[in-house]
Amino acid sequence: MSFNFASDNVAGASRPVLDALVAANGGPMPAYGTDPITLRVVSMLAELFERDIEALLVATGTAANALALAACLDPWGLCLCHEEAHVIDDECGAPEFFAHGAKLLGLPGTGGKLSPETLGQAIDRLPRHEKQMPAQVVSLSQATEAGLVYTPDEIAALAAVAHARGLVVHMDGARFANALVQLGCSPAALTWRAGVDILSFGATKNGCFAAEAVIAFKPDLVRSLRFRRKRSGHTLSKGRLLAAQFDGYLRDDHWLDNARHANAAAARLSAGLAGVAGIRLAWPTQANEVFAILSSGMDAALKAAGTIYHPWSPRSLADGERLGPGEALVRLVCSFAPEPSDVDGVIAAARSAGR
Amino acid sequence: MSFNFASDNVAGASRPVLDALVAANGGPMPAYGTDPITLRVVSMLAELFERDIEALLVATGTAANALALAACLDPWGLCLCHEEAHVIDDECGAPEFFAHGAKLLGLPGTGGKLSPETLGQAIDRLPRHEKQMPAQVVSLSQATEAGLVYTPDEIAALAAVAHARGLVVHMDGARFANALVQLGCSPAALTWRAGVDILSFGATKNGCFAAEAVIAFKPDLVRSLRFRRKRSGHTLSKGRLLAAQFDGYLRDDHWLDNARHANAAAARLSAGLAGVAGIRLAWPTQANEVFAILSSGMDAALKAAGTIYHPWSPRSLADGERLGPGEALVRLVCSFAPEPSDVDGVIAAARSAGR
Amino acid sequence: MSFNFASDNVAGASRPVLDALVAANGGPMPAYGTDPITLRVVSMLAELFERDIEALLVATGTAANALALAACLDPWGLCLCHEEAHVIDDECGAPEFFAHGAKLLGLPGTGGKLSPETLGQAIDRLPRHEKQMPAQVVSLSQATEAGLVYTPDEIAALAAVAHARGLVVHMDGARFANALVQLGCSPAALTWRAGVDILSFGATKNGCFAAEAVIAFKPDLVRSLRFRRKRSGHTLSKGRLLAAQFDGYLRDDHWLDNARHANAAAARLSAGLAGVAGIRLAWPTQANEVFAILSSGMDAALKAAGTIYHPWSPRSLADGERLGPGEALVRLVCSFAPEPSDVDGVIAAARSAGR
Amino acid sequence: MSFNFASDNVAGASRPVLDALVAANGGPMPAYGTDPITLRVVSMLAELFERDIEALLVATGTAANALALAACLDPWGLCLCHEEAHVIDDECGAPEFFAHGAKLLGLPGTGGKLSPETLGQAIDRLPRHEKQMPAQVVSLSQATEAGLVYTPDEIAALAAVAHARGLVVHMDGARFANALVQLGCSPAALTWRAGVDILSFGATKNGCFAAEAVIAFKPDLVRSLRFRRKRSGHTLSKGRLLAAQFDGYLRDDHWLDNARHANAAAARLSAGLAGVAGIRLAWPTQANEVFAILSSGMDAALKAAGTIYHPWSPRSLADGERLGPGEALVRLVCSFAPEPSDVDGVIAAARSAGR
Asked: Phi/psi at A303 (nearest 5 deg)?
């Protein structure tokens, strides 16, 4: 028996997503994203975001992020992001590749969050000369890599810093749904109304097989995207594969249900582990991920009980917090799939070990 | 009523492919292509090709081709191919992007086929100086863009020309299955035994949603592929999506059945149209595509009858053949999906118009 | 004794250029092209072209061309040029590198010249789909690789075709001075007044060591150039090296004197060879290069007499013209340096052999 | 009256370099670096380094560094260097451009120097997965950006760390001569004998106009360099321009004389400023640069006296050292050109202000 909290991508697709894909399979449809399902999905997204948008569907979050950043960056441009952001740390240089050698500069911040002060000082400290790459974009992860969320006000404050200095604001929304249900606000409030210019709207982690959308809120960011997508091999000839997943995902607020399920599981897990000896939370649980500092004994006990999770870098710990001897910082991720009983199994194992 | 012969990608997935995907959906699996289905598919491919291989699954033919070519090309290298090859004409510069500015040089040839003489002369005519990009790869399309097939002997002759000059041989096998069943030979005979070094093994056009494999027969071509795939956003986190399609595609020779079905439809269509006034075949039908020269009246009549197809460039016509006034060269593609009755509908419309 | 007509770059710098460099050497100056000599040279160029311009100095024609084209091309853009243009044939893919994978498409034309008809048809024939790279630039070589010149009217006709289709017009002016003195018109008439948007203004071949300028007539093409130059390693810290060469080159019309000298030498050589048995001119001599078709005996005799020159590709021969058995098409280039006696030596050798 | 200590590139060329250039100007020579002067210079460099080498001449240090790093890096590779290294901070992303999106990772260290511990831990901390860019190169600056030198033993220790982990060692020798004369060792001892695999051998700052060499000590790093150089526009057609500068630079140990002169000036300046109130040295003066912390009054006084210099980032200050209120860290660079009287002028101004 095992409890797999390694990642939100260990699950397959949720039932409504799979059903939509099966339903979309019959009959001929025009190719390369001109099919009626794709057109419908773009309309659904526009309605969701309460405005005209351009949305391009792709299969991976790495593609969505790299395309979005490339659309905003000159090849000699600089993108600022948190030093643990997925775009700088986990995409094997995809943004640098798509943007032809642009650079990402990582900034520190507790729990994966950037502060307006850190961002503003970092930009202002950069020399202004043709010898140095100019800052052009800031990329925010929502939820952060450490599972925290930016409120609309926090986003607006960061966007104000960025816009005042001529930068574009990108949001990596790989866990956008988890942040949204946590905050209880609208997609518009969490994005363009707060100053986000372009969004990677993730669906893979939260119930699809492989479906992401690049959503541009500024028309001039769109011009290049179709060529960039085709040229990077991300324009599916049978576009219905991506569109159908989104169709099932968005219909009847299924995506919000999935996110609520995952967040609830994480909250239950977080609460259950919080009081156990040998465990302390690294920071609050705000979405679908729990970050905990385990004693070496607890770490061994949880693994022995079949709990699967990954270690995490301590770079995002708050000032003053640090790992003690033998302690490990670990991440437990709840996808849309786990049952409360899975969560309770881990809690039980922890309590048993922590006694 | 309409008969859609626009492309092999107007269809969805075939039933066994869809079933395999549905079956693969349950339960957690490790991410990024380390799941058991991916491992099984790689084994199936190795068995199919009768040797050890490296196989990387991706979602599009453009990605497969661009990754394969990039693995063989320096950024200053030259790839020779037919002047109508998909890699040079229909991928918006994906090979140039993935290979960081490498160049493709198109060569002429009837029916999309390269001849050893044309290839050898083209390579030998290139200056040898650091001012000129050196030839490093030849890319063959199997079947060609014009629906013809290379026999194993023809491939071997081309590969001999290439290898003698230090070039690597890539095969764009977007319609590999169609060529294979036409020729009645083994996958090994049609690839590495004839000198192919790296293959884009297509499955999308022949029954999958979006599934292709880069298959390398030379180990030194493999080293870079995993990094290139990740960095281009083509490493799916939920790898089962690609693997399950291949699982359904390869199992019980389903892929060969699909190809036989499509080729038979094309043969039936070709034979039915061949004798009709106002129609002549541009060249023989050897796979799942029919290329016909239509009088303007016939063109109008077929469209009026609901037949959907695309015009085609006359560049690949044989020497001496040319389009008369008002004539159009068109392509009709049979996917795995059409019923004989669809084909017969087009033939009937043609005969009625040609009377 | 030898007569070196291999290239215009076998010479060093002309005396006034060298003197200007020596004169510029003393004392400290600010770095990276902010020195007073650079500023003066930019003013001289503006006066020469009778308008505000942006001019960036670099050391090589390849750099000038690649920077200029990259400033006009998206990474997925297409540049049309003559099939023998330097940018497509002799720069090892520098434009493709600087423009991040953009593509050059070579068009045919006698004597290296594009015609408005060929250009217009080539652009109009391109498919308009995101699968295909869109045409964005046409590059003209002045003089052409085959030593012919475009008149202002011919340039205007080509520019009209290009601009009507949204393309930018680049001129590779590696031999701009030679064309200018041949045509007897002003630099403005030969460039922006005829529709040229960006110019590679060559000085190396015509008397400098290594000095070229990218001159942009449209301000929006300039924005990226300074970053592109620095990032490609072409921003010299001691900018006076480039500027001083230009100072000597432009002052007192020295550059025009050099070009007149070279053209006169070529005209003398051309006239002297024209009537000799075993020699016929491939096309007229309009700048500083003579293209001649030699019998094998004449070829051997000239080489035996110490004449140094290179063979040339027959692709640019007029329709109907072709090389007979044993015949060779060769290029003899006159730099600013050769004395009339050098030219006469070759003519004498030819006459002696042709008797 | 002014004392210009802004940079070593405010000077022109030293006399012997200029003389060699003038001497090289006459008569025809073959193009593209096949001239006899280039061949002689490569031999001189081989003798200097006491072994077979490959050396490519280019005009800028940015080009030399970017070519060298690109030759060692996959497009998805990681180069580690000091966080203030020229390659990461002052080249507008040239290494990222030439290496097609590779990444540079800056590490801390007092006075611009990397320690073996910092380097080893940084490499070892990197995740090993295709999602992360693998470390492939370490780049050392000799002298460092902060004017300190690495001893042969220090280089060997860093190279041992790098080689044990499969990394290649690059040295940015923009101020190689200054380090060499400071240490009193041989070029071989300071490079390949200590484990350096590829060197940017600078000559521009130390007496040339624009002349640098990429010197590869491992043959497999050379293969791509000629193509990369041509394709980046750095292959001069009149190669004598670069070669002649090197000829004058290397002949009769002129380069060492220049470096000794510059270092002596810096030492004199450093000693003269050290005891003055309102000035303290940031770290020792080991080459041709003095880094001093000035009180605001001293800063104003020196500027008022006509001393030209640039502020410097405090990132490289030793742990515990920090700027007080109003204090500025500044850099004063001595080129080969200044007279002792220039130095003494600055010292006099400082003493007068510090009284």
From this structure: -65, -40
